[in-house]
Amino acid sequence: MARPKKYNIDGEQVQKLASFGCTNTEIASFFGCDESLIRKSYSEFITKGRQSGKIRLRQAQFRRAIGNIGQDGKPLNDGSVPMLIWLGKQILGQTEQPTLTEEDMVEGFDIEVIPSVQSSE
Q1: In a domain, 103, yes or no
Q2: What is the pLDDT of residues 90-120, one digit of tens each?
Q3: Is 40 among the domain residues?
Q4: How many CB atoms lie within 10 A of CB 90?
Q5: Is the alpha carbon torsion for 23, 30, 13, 61 positive or negative?
Q6: What backbone phi and psi angles, to 5 degrees, belong to 75?
Q7: What is the pLDDT of residues 35-84, one digit of tens each?
Q8: Are 66 and 79 spatial neighbours (Cβ–Cβ below 8 Å)?
Q9: Residue 82: which domain range?
Q10: Nearest residue to 67 (alpha-carbon basis) of 56, 78, 59, 57
Q11: Residue 106 lies in a domain
Q12: Which of 8, 13, 67, 92 could form a disulfide linkage to 79, CB 3.0–4.6 angstroms apart?
């Protein structure tokens, strides 16, 4: 039986590659080893790296949505309105479907539910 190869794999480097979104196969290819070695022996580094990548992505979204602030306290750009809308929906639970409450109702009008009419084609 052949003696197993020894690889010089740095866990921090595995974590960094995972934070860039590299797959286990791509990381293994970088180190010249089998994907199963990376998956089995470096899963903690892979998990930390992927979480770090998600955090960086969220930071980039917030920066783009809010806009960067200069040293004088004024915005350097207007940010991204679509990103603000998306973040509002995802994080704040906002929706585009208005809900009517009793306070929103105009006096003098009744809401009547009309049954759907089936077409006779």
Answers
A1: no
A2: 877 788 877 767 776 667 666 666 676 665 6
A3: yes
A4: 10
A5: negative
A6: -65, 140
A7: 999 999 999 999 999 999 888 877 877 777 777 677 787 766 666 778 76
A8: yes
A9: 11-94
A10: 78
A11: no
A12: 67
* Nearest CA-CA partner of 56 in 110, 94, 105, 18: 18
Record the tokens describing residue 7, joined without a space.
Answer: 């690889």
Tokens encoding 41: 């022996």
**11: Cβ contacts below 8 Å, ≥ 6 apart:** 42, 44, 45
| Helix residue spans in the chain (DSSP H) | 11-19, 24-31, 35-41, 43-66, 81-92
119 in any annotated domain: no
Return d(Cα 74, Cα 57) in angstroms, integer: 24
Domain count, the chain: 1
Q: Which residues contact 27 (CB under 8 A, 6 or more apart)?
A: 14, 17, 18, 38, 42, 46
Q: How far is CA 109 from CA 17, 97, 102, 106, 112, in A?
A: 62, 21, 12, 6, 9
First-to-last C-alpha distance (Å) of the chain: 76
Instruction: Look up residue 111 and give its amino acid.
Output: I
Owner of token pair 């994080």: 91
Provide the 10 A C-beta neighbour count for residue 120: 4
